[in-house]
Structures are given as C-alpha cells and as structure tokens.
Amino acid sequence: MTFELEKLPYSYDALEPVIDEETVKIHHDKHHQAYVNNFNKALEGTGFEEKTVEEILSNLDKIADEKRNAVKNHGGGHYNHSLYWEIMTPGGSKEPIGNLKKAIEEAFGSFEEFKTQFEQKGKTQFGSGWASLVKKDGKLSVVNNLNQDSPISDGYVVILNNDVWEHAYYLKYQNKRADYLTEWWKLVNWDIAEQRFNS
Ligand code: MN
C-alpha cells in the first residue's frame, strides 16, 4: 500500500490560540507530508510494503539493516504525527473520562500529578522528540523518545503524545518549550484518548 497524508479533522486555525495557524499548516502540510513521502520511498524493496504502520514499527528488527533507520525515522514520523493530530481538538472533554480517568489516578495518584510527570518528560527530552502516555500489560506510564522513535517499537500502546520538536511550537513559543507543554493540555481530546485506552 502507499501511505497517504490524511486531512486534518479540523481547520488550520482551529487550535488557536494554543497552536497558531501557520505552525499547524507548515507542520501538517510540509513536515508530516515529507515523512509520508519518505516512508513510502524507504519501504520500497523491504517486503513490508503491504503491512500497516503499526506492524512495521513493531517489527523493525526484521527490516534489512540498510533500510531500517529510514523506515524507523519516516514511519515513526508518520505514525507519531497521525496520532498527534487525532489527539487534539478545539472542543471535547477537558479532563480524562471513564476507564482512562481511573487508570491515570491509579498509576499517577491524580490527574495533576500525571500532567506534571508528562510535562517533565517533554521538558527533559534533550533535542527533538516526543512525550507520550503509554500502556503495556494494562499499566500506564509516561515516556519520552528521541527524534521519531515510537513507543510502539518498544511494545507499548500509545494513548496520547505531544511533539516537542521545535517545529511544533517555535513560531509562537520560541525557546519556551515548558509554556507550550502547559498550554497544550487545553487541546487534548480526552474522548479519543479514552477510546484508545479501551481498544
Ligand atoms: Mn512534528
């Protein structure tokens, strides 16, 4: 299959004022599009052309050495960004709901403590990468990953993620990554997060 960039489920300016229109436009139409294009190129000749992105990222050890890095970087870039766009919304529940709410309180003590630990993962990711809420064996934790490495390559299910590459926030927040991380909670789509947790 050839991977394609999905349209955003909202307009470019829908995430204002937390994320400005220009950032969303460049991030989706240029950065994410480039990951999709390069992922398709990287997959040629690997024997994994018909697999899903989840299957591919869960089996990187089976990709030929000379192709593995490109598949990991661009496949991870496609996967991580698809989830990032999905997990944000201009509306929706403002706090965790249902089973995920209970699981967050069980794992972290409270929603506030979870947010603190998640932001800490984002702040302390040196250079470019991601902070993610993940699940393994039914248990929640927060992790950070370098570049476009995806937690699913480590056997996790990703419930939500935040992009801490400078291209995600620099136009509006400049060097203030911590402010972006704090503001970003206003956008999280907890209805989708709950669905992902239950699936
Ligand atoms: Mn990005």
SSE arrangement:
Elements: H1 21-43, H2 53-57, H3 65-86, H4 98-108, H5 111-124, E1 129-136, E2 139-146, E3 157-163, H6 170-173, H7 177-184, H8 190-198
Antiparallel strand pairs: 1-2, 1-3
Describe this protein's structure.
It is a single chain. With 199 residues, the protein is mostly helical. 48% of the residues lie in helices and 12% in strands. Strands 2-1-3 form a three-stranded antiparallel sheet, sandwiched between helices. A hairpin with a 2-residue loop joins strand 1 (129-136) and strand 2 (139-146). Helix 4 packs across helix 5. The longest helix is centred in the N-terminal third of the chain and has 23 residues, at 21-43. It is globular and about 45 Å long. The two termini are 24 Å apart. The chain binds manganese (II) ion (MN). Manganese (II) ion binds next to helix 1.
Query: Alpha-carbon distance between the termini?
Result: 24 Å
Shape: globular
Distinct bound molecules: manganese (II) ion
- The overall strand count is 3
Strand content: 5-15%
Structural class estimated from helices and strands: mainly alpha
H/E order of the elements?
A: HHHHHEEEHHH
**Quaternary class:** single chain
Number of helices: 8
Q: Into which percent range does the helicity of residues fall?
A: 40-55%
Mean pLDDT: 96
